[in-house]
Input
Amino acid sequence: MAEKRQEKSLIRNNRRLQGDYCQVDLESPGIAPLVAPGQFVHVKMPNLEHRILRRPFSVYDTDPKDGRLSIVYKVIGLGTAHLATLKPGTELDLLGPLGVGFTPPRPEQTPIVVAGGYGCAATYLLARQSPVPAYCLLGGRSADDLLLVEEFKQLDAQVELATDDGSRGRRGLVTELLEELLARGDLRNPQIYACGPVGMLKAVGRIAHQSGLVAEISLDHAMCCGVGACFACVVKVKADTPAGWDYARTCVEGPVFRSDQAVWE
Amino acid sequence: MADLRVELGPLSLRNPVIAASGTFGYGREYRDLVALDSLGGIVVKGVSPFSSPGNPPPRTAEVEAGMLNAIGLQNPGIDKFVADPEYLPWLRTVNTAVIVNIWGRTVEDYVLVAERLEAEKSGIAALEINISCPNIKEGGIGFGTDLGMVEQVVGRVRRATTLPLITKLSPNVSRIADFARCAVDAGSDILSLINTLPAMAIDVESRKPRLANVTGGLSGPAIKPVAVKLVYEAAQAVEAPIIGMGGIVSAEDAAEFILAGASAVGVGTAIFADPQCLSRIVEGLDLYCRRQGVDALAELVGAVKF
Ligand SMILES: Cc1cc2nc3c(=O)[nH]c(=O)nc-3n(C[C@H](O)[C@H](O)[C@H](O)COP(=O)(O)OP(=O)(O)OC[C@H]3O[C@@H](n4cnc5c(N)ncnc54)[C@H](O)[C@@H]3O)c2cc1C
Ligand SMILES: Cc1cc2nc3c(=O)[nH]c(=O)nc-3n(C[C@H](O)[C@H](O)[C@H](O)COP(=O)(O)O)c2cc1C
Ligand code: FES
Output
């Protein structure tokens, strides 16, 4: 397994993007160059000692030369609300890079990214580093939930949008965009990568299987150690056991799993 | 530099700081992050005769100054633990005391694991009998809160192994002294305490328990004062050395257990927050000895003043 490090990194910039979403840029010269798309960092919240666990976040983007590592996070609870108050110059303790990320697309493949919510951040680096332009299908409840649209557009990518309420892009589900794209039948070796709410990931898996494909899906699960030591973060996956399944650790066997491995409950 | 070496009866450690069972995996998981040769020892996750999938998720919940867990002792089973290069064969290559935590559903299960490890004992510094896990229905805490069972499990494992034997006591008893004496009389060389405290948390919006298992074990800073008291009482009751744990985050926390009567300390939950805390505690204990004007940490064991 790839090397992981613990690093004290300084906040360079921490700002609200839109709605409840924020972006923090960190100076992390030790970890940034090691990050592969889909991997995450485990973040200790400073001055929140009575909340003892780290918080896992996908790496949104890196600049290895500059040592920059960026995270896009949604304020949903105590830790992320606290993170949003931190000023440039504050030190954050990171563990990373952690987990198994996405398999990089090969030049003869057509990558299709399907993302909802913070999934846009979790898949951006994959789209940016892809050797061939990716189709990027981004979805959310309303226009406010579509993340990083301009950043995706600046890549040499085909970006399509869907919102539940039709406030931006197609009215409907992002998975409908995926079904239509696959129905065209003219994509060379499509390879699907997805990160978002569980319902979306389930649908992506089903649609992929109907087309004879296997998607790579990134799951999120509450974690403690982040390095495979505590067995807190398990999900059911198909396995060669009497029951036909086993528990896999999201932090080391994932967070990216093959859609044909998933056992949905 | 103060002398931090520790003699726990038949078990010698370079310093008193031990990574606690279930929080440090099988050691390998932390090899990039923690200098294993800076630790007194590591206790691996509980091993049983059979592989066990553990409890359904969610298995953990963060609470004020601590966490609940109901992992359910997921483990690869003794056969794989002994043979797979990732487990015991790898542990034989590390330069720290390796303590193997064992558990089972029946007394025979404990004996079976102890016998297998006796046959494979090179590289194993000691066995720790877990009779105090709150998260499994049989064995675990059911054994640890019944004096007759403690005597049987410890006695039978004692006869199955020549390795130094540690018994991990449950905090969930009304008189810890009785259990401490019982385990030592049955042949335990060392006692370790405390395991997690049975606990529960409810999400008030969904009105559901936060653990799929409903209840789990509380660990972290929230349990420290409870643990210090139990270590103090156990130390009053027996001569055998004690490994104290429960909520240790800093060297000062560790010192508190040592003053209460522990000769060494276990650190668990704090590792999740900061893997570096282990070596920081070692360094901090050295400073603490110097502040107290003692040459050896051993002088401070049980040295609480009244
Ligand atoms: C591999 C991975 C990648 C992630 N990437 C991102 C990302 O790029 N952007 C983003 O906004 N969020 C991401 N998340 C989710 C993020 O970890 C949670 O939103 C965050 O932990 C919430 O912390 P809190 O203190 O605000 O919430 P609280 O509800 O106060 O947290 C309480 C506890 O539950 C845990 N927890 C709560 N929700 C989640 C969740 N959805 N996933 C995991 N743990 C949770 C917390 O870590 C904490 O231990 C990711 C999760 C995983 C597992
Ligand atoms: C996630 C988790 C898993 C644990 N697994 C085990 C185990 O397998 N065997 C055992 O004897 N104790 C286990 N424990 C208990 C710890 O070893 C320790 O006794 C307890 O957590 C108190 O110390 P702490 O507050 O420093 O964590 C576990 C604790 C946690 C938090
Ligand atoms: S978080 Fe500890 S094993 Fe995954």
In short: Chain B touches chain A at residues 22-26, 29-30, 32-33, 45, 53-54, 57-62, 64-67, 69, 71, 74, 220-221, 269-276 (CB under 8 Å).
